[in-house]
Amino acid sequence: MSEPVAISTGIAQRYATAVFELAKEGKALKALESDIDNLDAALDASADFRALIASPLYSRDAQGDAIAAISKKMKLSPTMTNTLNLMASKRRLFVLPQLVNTLREAIADDKGEVTAEVTAAKALTKTQQDKLAKTLKASVGKDVKIKMAVDENLIGGLIVKVGSKMIDTSIRSKLASLQNSMKEVG
Asked: Could you tell me which residue, 94 or 7, shows the higher pLDDT?
């Protein structure tokens, strides 16, 4: 792990631990989970938001004002709003994506859940996702929350990542495997 990534992860871990403990004490984990979902969606959808948190060109005051306005518009909980304001004043907003991921993991762990990253050639229906979650729960032993992604290059099949385990049943990987075995023969 490179040094800047390790530093960012360490900073995010400390903030996440504090926010999680405050939310748990205040019995506000549900609100925190909603805040995380909103922030994650904003990070995915807005290049301007990503630029705001990452660019050193914005002053502390500009970042603080923008974060205050964003927090108010998104109706974030007081705990998350105060944390983001503190991060802006300390010039630590660049760790927000890691903070979101770390908080999501902490909440899932607290609830006894695990997140499965599923990539499919086409979007799965709700019934298919529920069936997959049930199958994964039987093998993992925890409730499974599915994070869906679509990659048409897979041709067919799924790639499922749960923790450090990965199952790749995609047609693309099977064709690649077949191609490699044919190269070995000839």
From this structure: 94
